[in-house]
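Quick illustration, no need to memorize.
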Amino acid sequence: MLSRRAAWLLLVPVLLVLVGYVLFPSLQTFVLGIGGGDWGDLFASPRAVNARALTNSVLVSLYTVVGAGILGTSLAYCLFRFDLPLRRVMMALAAFPLALPPLVGVLAFAFLYGESGILPRGLQMLLGLDDVPFSFRGLGAVWLVHVYSLYVYFYLFVLAALRGVDRSLLEASADLGASGWTTFRRVVLPLLRPALISAALLVFMVSMASFTAPLLFADTEPFLTVQIFNYKRNGNLALSAAVSTLLTVICLVFLILIEWGNRKQGGGAAKGASAPPLPVQKGWQRALAGFGVVSLLVFLVLPIATVLLISFAQEGSWTTQIMPSRYTFGNYAALLSDPDVFAPIANSLRMAGLATVANVIFGVAAALVIVKTKLPGRGLVRLLAVLPFAIPGTVIAVNLIVTFNEPSAWSGGQILVGTFWILPLAYFVRHIPFVVRATMASLERYDDRLTEASADLGAPYRVTFRRIVLPLIMPGIVAGTLLTFVTALGEFVSSILLYVYSNRPISVEIWSQLSREFNFGEAAAYSVFLMILIMASALVVRRLGVEGSGKRLGG
């Protein structure tokens, strides 16, 4: 437990940051949206564009919950319960979409399944058709991209819950003659209910906040996030703020439900070891399982393999052909040799690094205030620290535009909109919950008796924190740092509304190459380079965290 003086020294700056950069901008947008938006015109009838946008956003999110729930739960249960072919490979690949930047995932689907993509054109040639047999556009396309991107939440939540299921329950059900399906329905599924509800709420909220897939694939169908972007691009900030207010309220409701569910959820009664995977012995079952595994592997890997292939395409070599007709290493050479091409990479690394450093410093301080003090303001800190998770990226961008398009005390008397600093600030605000929640989880497991013992031995608190507290909470800090950095590297949703040419990040440059210059090869090369950066960052941060923790504990 922190001393009262140390607690106040942390609480005051933490509250100032949260009020100045989270609460105040949100209230500014809320006031502008309520007062400046004509709500009667916005939702005048079910056919009004914003009413349709609300309907599309809600329906696609509901269907995404169903599709992602079926895929993620089935995958988690099968990989946990059965010793399938390539099981370890599948478990490694199943969580891959979580580390895939949203824009890269959408780009992969466009190259593969789009109207001019490889698969439709290949089927057209194979079947001798005059037109492509299907067009990957509209609500169905957005839904499929969402399922591919978001099933991983169900997979991870359900897999974690399954590992806590007592094997004796499954063995007792089998001893009583229950089939595998009956055991799953009557024994396993009730135990998974809290995880399924949490995953469903999270997937619905994330789907509602999705911007990239609707922007590229929705065609003429409106979505709330795209409406916010279009109103801002057309200079109507009041209407953009009005739609932002509606979307924030919806996401905030689901965040409250998630938080309430997490607090109500208790531990299970099972205390035994988890069940080992069952071998699949029958020939037809192994064949069916193998076919299912291969199909899922293709579904997971093919979009990424397509981006890798297109990254070698020479500019202008992929127009009406099924595949690029010429290939080159020039796209990759330009990334490192051409200063103009390398600039977005340097920008992303610099801005993601600045935001991550700020998130780590602030996140550790906020977590200490929430978990290790009893000051009256810590409840407000906890609420405001998780609030950015309920605010979609488009709305955070609008919040910052509304607040910092004129000088204020929170910006040091400067206008931040149109400057380099607005993007690192947006990244910082978006990712506040990551380090705070990860560090909180570590602090809640920390035994305060260790601090008391250190104090009894005469160590000042700064020494205790550096030598005892920090090494023990380092895994949580590293996890939050990793998630913050890799997410900021590929951030697109806020960037597209806030960037200027001099600080354009990788994601915006990918979009520019794709939408304005039709340079598919260079856009794909940027995407591959972004994935490599994210994977390398994950390995480096994880290794530094483990080594740093070990050295501190040993010293």
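Residues 266-271, 545-555 have pLDDT under 50 and may be disordered.
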